[in-house]
């Protein structure tokens, strides 16, 4: 299950901004679309994703990853083929909507949902390992895209991504994925027996293995939305999505303004991924010790510092530090930022709750490239948008420091049946 979750994260690449970044300049030149309109198409895709993802989260809780992962693999491959055939702005809007909803949204959600079901006390570490799939994807996919585009053109590159997704995800998911450990006679973390020691999910206790239902004090969506901690965590997710996507989306052009060529700008994505790989595992270990909010606050500090650095980059050599800061931030978000929702609000409705959070993040990610594009078109520089982007993470970081894990029963706790008369008498 850990391997399949990792594969799902890796193969979500076609819908991720780091993969799309390699296609921007070739597609702009071929389609005759301006950078701002290209960003508007991305925005439209995010708005559609924000509408769809809460429903996907509910569907995931009901159907499970065993059905959803192969289905999403088929659909994402088809979306890549669509991207290889577009000839207009309208077609670009449709294509972006499909790859963002399926790849960046639903596939990522399904991969981490699977890991959330199979791990409890070691969930943070497991999320850190799954995050390696995303990190390796960032490290390799932009370079593969760039090589394919240079050799065969951007349309063949999109078609190649379709084949990669179909081969790597559809059949393996059908053969290997199982939704939960309990129906198989197992418990989370690979245990054969119930562990009385409480893990990160304080209050959770497994039911009998044959029952297949994990009896916990999980929150419903409405319960979670009524808590201030949800909105503070959401602020971090949306800030990461908006600022991070904006930076990656325009990374080639943004760094070109500082004298850094295209190939080095794409190589920098690999550096960010390498730093994130190491950071993610350590962040997972610290998450298992209950330090999620401190990690998330640190991630916002790294992000704000990175934006400030690229805004006033003293010389091209400083770009290495910029990549390192974004790598530190990305490693934390892929682990602590994913596990925190299940740790705070339980397993039972994790798909629905994270579906709502991811919907907001997808919309924020769609907005991210537009301020930078408008800043460039209106002022001839990215500086205005970058100044705003440097402040937002600092505010979100201060907020998340006060996001304490809910204690006690949720607002709508699970009710247990009342004892019968004889049972009450014997008690």
What descriptors fit this protein?
mainly alpha, 427 residues, globular, Growth Hormone, Chain: A
> What about the largest sheet?
none
Shape by Cα distribution: globular
CATH topology: Growth Hormone, Chain: A
Which percent range fits the helix content? Answer: over 70%
Rg estimate, integer Å? 22 Å
Determine the structural class based on helices, strands and strand pairing.
Answer: mainly alpha
- Overall CATH architecture: Up-down Bundle
| Secondary-structure element string | HHHHHHHHHHHHHHHHHH
Strand content: under 5%
Mean pLDDT figure: 83
Strand tally is 0
- In DSSP terms (H or I, runs of 4 or more residues), the helix count works out at 18
The total number of structural domains is 1
Describe this entry's structure for a reader:
It is a single chain. The protein has 427 residues and is mainly alpha-helical. It has helices at residues 2-11, 17-20, 24-31, 35-63, 65-85, 89-118, 123-152, 154-176, 221-225, 228-249, 251-256, 262-288, 292-311, 319-345, 350-367, 369-379, 383-400, 421-426. The longest helix has 30 residues, at 89-118. It is globular, with a radius of gyration of 22 Å. The two termini are 43 Å apart. The relative contact order is 0.16.
Write the topology of this structure.
Layout: H1 2-11, H2 17-20, H3 24-31, H4 35-63, H5 65-85, H6 89-118, H7 123-152, H8 154-176, H9 221-225, H10 228-249, H11 251-256, H12 262-288, H13 292-311, H14 319-345, H15 350-367, H16 369-379, H17 383-400, H18 421-426
Helix pairs in contact: 1-6, 1-7, 1-8, 4-6, 4-15, 4-16, 5-6, 5-8, 6-7, 6-15, 7-8, 7-12, 7-14, 10-13, 10-14, 10-15, 10-16, 10-17, 12-14, 13-14, 13-17, 16-17
């Amino acid at each position: 299950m850990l391997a399949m979750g990792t594969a799902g994260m890796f193969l979500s690449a076609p819908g991720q901004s780091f993969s799309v970044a390699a296609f921007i300049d070739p597609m702009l030149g071929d389609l005759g679309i301006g950078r701002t309109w290209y960003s508007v198409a991305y925005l439209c895709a995010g708005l559609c994703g924000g509408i769809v993802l809460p429903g996907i989260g509910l569907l995931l809780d009901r159907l499970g990853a065993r059905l959803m992962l192969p289905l999403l693999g088929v659909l994402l491959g088809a979306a890549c083929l669509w991207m290889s055939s577009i000839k207009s702005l309208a077609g670009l809007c449709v294509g972006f909507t499909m790859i963002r909803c399926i790849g960046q949204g639903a596939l990522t959600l399904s991969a981490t949902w699977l890991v959330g079901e199979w791990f409890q006390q070691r969930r943070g570490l497991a999320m850190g390992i799954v995050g390696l799939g995303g990190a390796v994807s960032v490290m390799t996919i932009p370079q593969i895209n760039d090589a394919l585009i240079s050799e065969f053109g951007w349309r063949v590159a999109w078609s190649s991504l379709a084949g990669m997704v179909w081969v790597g995800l559809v059949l393996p998911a059908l053969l290997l994925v199982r939704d939960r450990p309990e129906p198989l006679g197992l418990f989370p973390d690979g245990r054969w027996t119930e562990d009385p020691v409480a893990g990160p999910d304080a209050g959770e206790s497994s039911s009998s293995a044959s029952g297949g239902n994990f009896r916990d004090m999980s929150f419903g969506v409405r319960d979670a939305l009524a808590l201030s901690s949800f909105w503070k965590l959401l602020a971090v997710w949306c800030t990461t999505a908006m600022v991070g996507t904006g930076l990656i989306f325009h990374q080639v052009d943004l760094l070109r303004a500082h004298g850094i060529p295209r190939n080095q700008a794409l190589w920098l994505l690999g550096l960010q991924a390498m730093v994130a790989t190491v950071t993610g595992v350590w962040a997972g270990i610290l998450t298992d010790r209950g330090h999620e909010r401190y990690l998330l606050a640190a991630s916002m500090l790294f992000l704000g510092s990175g934006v400030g650095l690229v805004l006033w980059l003293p010389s091209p050599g400083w770009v290495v530090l910029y990549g390192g800061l974004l790598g530190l931030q990305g490693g934390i978000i892929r682990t602590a930022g994913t596990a925190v929702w299940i740790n705070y609000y339980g397993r039972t409705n994790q798909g629905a709750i994270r579906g709502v959070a991811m919907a907001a993040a997808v919309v924020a990610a769609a907005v991210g490239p537009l301020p930078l594009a408008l800043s460039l078109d209106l002022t001839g520089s990215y500086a205005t948008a970058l100044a705003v982007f440097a402040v937002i993470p600092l505010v979100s970081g201060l907020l998340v420091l006060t996001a304490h894990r809910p204690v006690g029963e949720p607002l709508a706790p699970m009710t247990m049946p009342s004892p019968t008369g004889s049972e009450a008498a014997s008690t």
